[in-house]
Structures are given as C-alpha cells and as structure tokens.
Amino acid sequence: MIRLALWGLMIASLMGFWRVIIGPTVPDRIVAADALTIILTTVLALLAIDFGNGIFLDIALAFSILAFADVLIMAKYFEHGELHR
C-alpha cells in the first residue's frame, strides 16, 4: 500500500514540476514549488515507514524547515524585487 502511495505522489510531483516550468505567473510557480516540497517531505516520511529507518524522518524535518524559509525568501524577493529590506 505504501508503494502505491509513493507512485501517486510521484505522479503528483511530475504535475507540480510541470507547473513550476510552465506556470503562467511567478506566484503560480512559487505555490507549485511549495507543493513540491510538501510532496517530497511526504515521500521521505513514507520511505521511513517502508524501510523502517528513522533517519528519513530527520531528513524530512530538516528539508521542510529549509523549504519553508525558501518559500518566504522567494515571496519576499518577487514582491519587492530585492532581498535586503
């Protein structure tokens, strides 16, 4: 069952990646990139369950914190056009 969920998430990530590349506006691309980080975090959590290895959860936690900061930085940059305000 976990393998089926992983395949579904991979299909969802392909659609999200398509939106990042083709997105008509910059906010669409930012939201798609954020959705991709959520999907990847979920994939890492499912891999931790599938392999029975807790290190994947540590990696997922660190990745989600960095992804949240990344989305905030991208949003601020595209709103103001610079990062040092």
From TrEMBL:
Organism: Acetomicrobium hydrogeniformans ATCC BAA-1850
Single GO term (MF): sodium:proton antiporter activity
Domain of life per record: Bacteria
Official protein name in the record: Putative Na(+)/H(+) antiporter subunit F
UniProt-annotated location(s): Cell membrane
Pfam families: MrpF_PhaF
Protein topology in the membrane: Multi-pass membrane protein
Keywords: Cell membrane, Membrane, Transmembrane, Transmembrane helix, Transport
